[in-house]
Amino acid sequence: MSTELTLTTPALLFPAISLLLLAYTNRFLTLANLIRDLHTRYRQDPHPRTRGQLSNLLYRIGLIRNMQVCGVASFACCVLSMGALFAGQVIAGQWIFGASLALLLASLGLSLRELWVSIDALKLQVQDLDEDR
Known about the structure:
Layout: H1 8-11, H2 13-44, H3 48-86, H4 90-131
Helix pairs in contact: 2-3, 3-4
């Protein structure tokens, strides 16, 4: 069984990757604003919990950066795959499209990791409330 890869196949990923990058950017901007606020608060009152929150947020920002890099690389590979297919280089187009899918999967994996870290941070925040009683 032979599968044919046409120009439209990589193009199908364009909207999905674009929406992912938009979501990643929104997450990044939200965390960046939170970091700025916590940084100001930490300067006024250097509490170890605030420092811990900043460390967690910086780790998450790094994950989001890597998510974006993988997403952009996936997008670029889609374009390169379409170019190879347009030039009649079907095998090269298939391999490049495979790389695009692998990068997209890596981006989604990093997104899942960032989600788990986010949940852990929220659990710590709630535990903090229990300690204050």
